[in-house]
Amino acid sequence: MNTRTIDQADMAYGNILGSNVLGGLLAGSPVRVIFLGLAVFLSCIAVVYVKDINRRLSVQSQMITAQEGMLKVEGDKLLLEQSAWSMQARIERIATTDLNMQLPSSNAVVMVRG
Q: Please, is 20 exposed, middle or buried when counting C-beta atoms within 10 Å of its C-beta (0-12, 13-18, 19+)?
């Protein structure tokens, strides 16, 4: 194998994957350099912006989760209060004391048949 052939192959490989490709992109004109620099800068700004949005949404999610927990506790308390208000013994006590209602005697009950 010829050493000159190996050197040419190595140089071609280096030109494709090495710094010569990047140099080729940047060597054309100053407009390319400015464009690539602007693209990198805008990418950095986009990363910072997305990280900020992510942080804000994370804080909002934690606040909503905490509020959900408080609302669940309040809902459980209201269910307990509702069951206390609708207990049969309480209803009977209010009917007899506040409304002066009484259970009728068995003789006073009339069966209606339809």
A: middle
